[in-house]
């Protein structure tokens, strides 16, 4: 044991530093895996190492010896105990090659010690590794990848390897490889196999283990007799097992000291003269015919297994850098091989050309912003900007596993989850089931700036009154209120921070002198504003309030606002007895006891949300009906989940090519967003530009492979911040009859929200509600335009000023203030208040409220910024958008690799291809056909009908 009482030392000095190094090495190993496949011409990926199986059996037995030292009797290792074992014997190379080729050999055992306890032991037929640590191991693998001939092997060993690790290390590695592989192997039953590195063995401390043939095993025939048989080792084992059992002894060697039996150096042999071998158990592979259908099926199942030395318990935890790296490496290799994880390589031309492209546009943008460039040049500028944002502005906040922990053998993926979205967002990424699921933490696009001393400075109530309060409604004349309803409809699918119950844990905001606030309906005036605190996630070792927060919605684009994000809720929204359709009452959402509709998410409910939720519930049912007719053999559960896939993808398409071009109305953005979904325009110049700069964009995201860009997918706190678009909501609404143009009623926001929304919806009807919102303008996303109704808003038994809540939440979640925010997104810092806005009144108020430009709140700066022409929000906010818009699509398995007819059905693919928001709306309200724009998005203002004098004739105008 080392002087500090620990057996292990971490590369980089800490477990976290080593984890980051291992992540890079794992990506390199995945590249090795794909390179081997490409060079070999194989149709599928093989294991990175030990690709060719020689034998796979499920019926071996491990019997623990009775004569066992007391300190080795730990965990499942109990004298006389017997366990079933799965065995895989293999050649060590990452390429499948004839058994006569010089190579090491390996064995993998899975000891089933109980229904939920297994132990994987992995060994190779040489007592030491060619590599001291994970870095050398990966360097060797990279050098040898694809070296399938003697000249290539020589070049790899004598040129590429020394360049990677240095000449002395390369020489030592070559010696070990030659020593291990030059011996001719007659039978894998007669080989001895050693563990790569040490494992903990309970209180006995570290050991290395080995598997050696038991005495009395019959010899093998001379290899010369079967030299022409590429599978001679398998043939020999088949013949041997046809006659008798194959028996091995499992043994261990104890740790002595860091010199003779090092933990962190896998290239040093633990010599038996220093640490004698101790017999622990006997492994018996019973006599059998391995060529029967039953045996072949068992071998096929063994070949699908993913062995990992970390599939064990803490008593038998693997030790040393090589072993610690193996957990991530084996998981990644297995996931890649099984099609659970993907590696997208950027073409070399894109890498090379991207560097000067980004540098050139960086220099150009100091004088001319991207949106003032000619269209094609601005598109290239956006590509360069997005590449820079992907490189610098994706930050993982999930609490990492460092150092690695042991685990139970992962359960096989439920086959139903391969073709259906889970209720809670798990298993979208099959290699990381919890990625993006309910409860996953929000990521970051910028490093958090967590300043508790600045939470109330300047006073957020003062900020709201001076800069956000709506004195007069400022309309966004290029949009209609459906655009406002749509984005809230989407946000409810994406993000929802969990709050403590009202009255249990609150944020208290001091009010300016002389001010009071009623924190509950009818409550007493108080000198503080109080609202429910968010529930945070404490990182290990962190002090003070948490700076991480979990999403109670899934991060995926999965329609959870319609379907719910847990199984119980989702099932309750379906027709009785497991029907595929969603429950509706005469076309409307059913009501709960509190007057709110029963749907996937009904918080902050108002007429606009009712319109969207009702429309897409009906759309789901329409898809179900078509699926039943096209596939009468399909069961109701499959119909439901397929319809959900179709509707969720259609929602993503609508947001991408309908809503976003409406709110960011420029030619460059329309082309860019259409390219996201269906690839670039069919002209040679644009396609050549994409081929040279970002080839991944040539097909459109739905035809690509998932790509997380090196950071597990999640939505971010910064994303939440830029989607604070409450100014879109008007304070009053005119309800109009679409047939005659007559006003039905004029209502304030309080009259169309909460429990009042559904009675109004049923009375007015979906068509009139859509028409009323379609002809009206939302508010502009600017300062001095926050809805008055939301500044005194009743929610869950509390009264809140939502503008103050938005400011406070952003500060307390560590989102950087505006100047740091824009700087972190590759925009120049502002030096004067006049740089924020060209409006003199706004500048004066900013100077009154803030001490310096560095203190300006993020939301205030985003609202104050003069947006590019045609934009509904600021260029700074847009930078988060351009990064995350493609990421939300590209990360999602169901919008990339599994966006295909086999999953969606041909009907489903056709439905998504040929529909948009206009067709969805007109399918359910065909009477609105004459009002929606002919050649533009339904999110721009509709043609209003002039009131008629004779109101008896529908359709007259």
The N- and C-terminal alpha carbons lie at a distance of 90 Å
Query: Rough shape?
Result: elongated
CATH topology of the domain at 15-337: the name is Catalase HpII,  Chain A, domain 1
Task: Estimate the helix proportion, in percent.
Answer: 25-40%
- Can you say what the CATH homologous superfamily of the domain at 15-337 is? Catalase core domain
Report mean pLDDT, rounded to a whole number. Answer: 91
Structural class: alpha+beta
Number of helices: 27
Rg over CA atoms, rounded to whole Å, is 32 Å
Low-confidence runs of at least 5 consecutive residues:
1-5, 952-957
Q: Which CATH class of the domain at 15-337?
A: Mainly Beta
Beta-strand share of residues = 5-15%
Largest sheet: 8 strands, antiparallel, barrel
CATH architecture of the domain at 15-337: Beta Barrel
User: How is the largest sheet built, in terms of strand order?
Assistant: 1-2-3-4-5-7-8-9
Number of strands: 19
Structure characterization notes:
It comes from Streptomyces inhibens. Its cofactor is Ca(2+). Residues 212-225 have a biased composition (Low complexity). Residues 212-232 are annotated as: Disordered. It holds the Pfam family Catalase. The protein is of the alpha+beta class. Among the domains are: 15-337, Catalase HpII,  Chain A, domain 1 (Beta Barrel); 563-662 and 731-776 and 892-957, Haem peroxidase domain superfamily, animal type (Myeloperoxidase, subunit C). The chain contains 27 helices and 19 strands. The strands form 6 sheets. Strands 1-2-3-4-5-7-8-9 form an 8-stranded antiparallel β-barrel. α1 (15-40) runs parallel beside α2, α2 packs antiparallel against α3 and α3 packs across α4 (167-181). The longest helix is centred in the C-terminal third of the chain and has 28 residues, at 636-663. The radius of gyration is 32 Å and the shape is elongated. The N and C termini lie far apart (90 Å).
């Amino acid at each position: 044991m080392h002087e500090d009482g620990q057996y292990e030392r971490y590369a980089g000095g800490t477990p976290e530093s080593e984890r980051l190094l291992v992540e890079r090495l794992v990506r390199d190993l995945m590249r090795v895996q794909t390179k081997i496949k490409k060079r070999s011409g194989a149709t599928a990926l093989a294991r990175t190492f030990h690709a060719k199986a020689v034998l796979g059996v499920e019926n071996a037995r491990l019997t623990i010896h009775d004569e066992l030292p007391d300190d080795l009797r730990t965990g499942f290792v109990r004298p006389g105990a017997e366990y079933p074992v799965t065995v895989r014997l293999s050649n060590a190379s990452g390429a499948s090659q004839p058994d006569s080729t010089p190579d090491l050999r390996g064995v993998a055992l899975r000891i089933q010690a109980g229904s939920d306890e297994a132990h994987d032991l992995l060994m190779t037929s040489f007592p030491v590794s060619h590599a001291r640590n994970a870095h050398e191991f990966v360097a060797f693998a990279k050098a040898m990848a694809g070296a399938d001939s003697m000249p290539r092997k020589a070049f790899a060993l004598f040129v590429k390897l020394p360049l990677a690790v240095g000449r002395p290390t390369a020489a030592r590695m070559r010696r070990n490889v030659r020593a291990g592989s030059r011996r001719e192997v007659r039978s894998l039953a007669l080989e001895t196999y050693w563990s790569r590195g040490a494992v903990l063995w309970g209180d006995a401390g570290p050991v290395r283990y080995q598997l050696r043939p038991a005495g009395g095993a019959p010899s093998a025939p001379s290899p010369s007799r079967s030299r022409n048989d590429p599978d001679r080792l398998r043939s020999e084992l088949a013949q041997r097992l046809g006659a008798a059992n194959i028996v091995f002894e499992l043994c261990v060697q104890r740790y002595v000291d860091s010199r003779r039996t090092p933990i962190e150096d896998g290239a040093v042999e633990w010599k038996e003269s220093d640490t004698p071998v101790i017999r622990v158990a006997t492994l018996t592979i019973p006599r059998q015919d391995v060529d029967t259908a039953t045996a072949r099926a068992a071998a096929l199942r063994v070949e699908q297994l993913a062995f990992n030395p970390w599939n064990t318990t803490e008593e038998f935890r693997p030790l040393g850098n090589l072993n610690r790296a193996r957990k991530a490496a084996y998981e990644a290799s297995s996931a890649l091989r099984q099609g659970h994880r993907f590696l997208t390589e950027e073409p070399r031309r894109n890498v090379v050309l991207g560097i000067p492209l980004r540098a050139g546009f960086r220099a150009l943008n100091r004088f001319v912003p991207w949106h003032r460039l000619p269209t094609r040049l601005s598109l290239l500028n956006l590509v360069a900007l997005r590449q820079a944002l992907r490189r610098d502005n994706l930050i993982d906040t999930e609490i990492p596993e460092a150092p690695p922990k042991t685990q139970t053998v992962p359960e096989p993926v439920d086959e139903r989850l391969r073709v259906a979205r889970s209720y809670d967002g798990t298993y979208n990424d099959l290699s990381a089931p919890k990625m993006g699921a309910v409860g996953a933490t929000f990521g970051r696009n910028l490093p958090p700036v967590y300043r508790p001393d600045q939470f109330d400075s300047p006073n957020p109530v003062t900020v709201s009154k001076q800069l956000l309060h709506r004195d007069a409604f400022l309309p966004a004349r290029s949009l209609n209120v459906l655009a406002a309803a749509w984005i809230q409809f989407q946000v409810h699918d994406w993000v929802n921070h969990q709050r403590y119950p009202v009255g249990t844990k609150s944020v208290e905001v001091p009010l300016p002198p002389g001010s009071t606030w009623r924190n509950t309906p009818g409550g007493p005036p108080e000198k503080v504003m109080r609202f429910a605190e968010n529930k945070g996630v404490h990182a290990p070792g962190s002090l003070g309030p948490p700076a991480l927060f979990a999403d109670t919605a899934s991060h995926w684009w999965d329609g959870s606002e319609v379907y719910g994000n847990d199984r119980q809720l989702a099932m309750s929204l379906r027709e009785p007895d497991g029907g595929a359709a969603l429950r509706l009452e005469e076309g409307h959402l059913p009501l709960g006891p509190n007057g709110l509709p029963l749907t996937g998410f009904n918080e902050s409910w108002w007429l606009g949300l009712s319109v969207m939720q009702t429309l897409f519930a009906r759309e789901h049912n329409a898809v179900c009906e078509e699926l039943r007719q096209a596939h009468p053999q399909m069961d109701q559960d499959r119909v439901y989940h397929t319809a959900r896939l179709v509707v969720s993808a259609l929602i993503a398409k609508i947001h991408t090519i309908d809503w976003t071009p409406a709110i960011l109305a420029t030619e460059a953005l329309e082309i860019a967003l259409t390219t996201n979904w269906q690839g670039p325009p069919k002209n040679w110049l644009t396609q050549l530009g994409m081929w040279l700069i970002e080839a991944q964009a040539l097909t459109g995201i739905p035809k690509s492979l998932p790509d997380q860009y090196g950071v597990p997918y999640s939505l971010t706190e910064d994303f939440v911040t830029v989607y604070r678009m409450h100014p879109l909501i008007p304070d009053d609404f005119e309800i109009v009859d679409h047939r005659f143009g007559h006003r039905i009623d004029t209502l304030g926001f309080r009259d169309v929200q909460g429990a009042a929304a559904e009675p109004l919806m049923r009375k007015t009807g979906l068509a009139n509600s859509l028409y009323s919102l379609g002809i009206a303008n939302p508010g502009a996303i600017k300062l001095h335009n926050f809805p008055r109704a939301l500044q005194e808003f009743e929610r869950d038994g509390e009264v809140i000023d939502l503008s103050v809540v938005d400011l406070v939440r952003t500060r307390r979640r560590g989102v950087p203030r505006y100047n740091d925010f824009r700087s972190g997104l590759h925009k120049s810092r502002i030096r004067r208040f006049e740089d924020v806005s060209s409006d003199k009144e706004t500048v004066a108020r900013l100077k009154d409220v803030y001490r310096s430009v560095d203190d300006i709140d993020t939301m205030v700066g985003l609202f104050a910024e003069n947006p590019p022409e045609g934009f509904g929000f600021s260029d700074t906010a847009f930078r988060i958008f351009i990064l995350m818009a493609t990421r939300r699509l590209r990360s999602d398995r169901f919008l990339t690799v599994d966006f295909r007819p086999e999953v969606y059905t041909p009907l489903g693919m056709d439905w998504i291809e040929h529909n948009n928001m206009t067709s969805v709306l007109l399918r359910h309200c065909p009477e609105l056909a004459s009002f929606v724009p002919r050649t533009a998005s339904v999110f721009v203002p509709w043609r209003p009908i002039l009131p008629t004098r004779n109101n008896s004739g529908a359709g007259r105008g």
